[in-house]
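[job 4471] stage=fold_predict status=RUNNING
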Amino acid sequence: METTNFFTQIAQLQIKGSLQITIEQGVDNLWIVSVLLQNEKCGDQAKNIIIPCVLKGTSKELDTDFFGTITSPLEMTSGLMSNMEDFMKQLEVAKQQSVMEKEKAEKTKKEQEAKTKKFTEAMQKAEVLEKEGKFKEAWTALPKIGDFPEQAEAIRKRMNDLEKFLAPSLFGESIN
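[job 4471] inference complete, writing structure tokens
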């Protein structure tokens, strides 16, 4: 029996997956060869609609151009399945990152809401103390500018308003 280079030529295709070849003898000395590439690593079910490459010819015709005929379709199919698998992996990564981003945004929102609530409560406490005539306690109850830099102007204004009650003017200005 003669040595062939069939498997060497298959190895040169550099395809990923399982190559399924079915050979059947037909009528009039014709052979029917079905070649299908499967890639179980590819999670996309669209891979299942890829049909096999079917060749018909005499043994001599198939010997002459079998690899020339199947090389391009197999390489395209292998590339497609690899791209499909990469896409599925990236899709999963994107889903995870999306969840992470949503959680991060939600956490940031909750932190901002808590900070706003703390600011509002401190301002309200200062207002209550001011109405009770406890100006020093009201001034002390005001939120710290360092904790709420975005509200610095409002805090300074309230501080200035309360300071009028804490240190009356030496020049006789009246307190409202």
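[job 4471] summary: The chain has two domains: 6-91, 103-166.
[job 4471] exit 0
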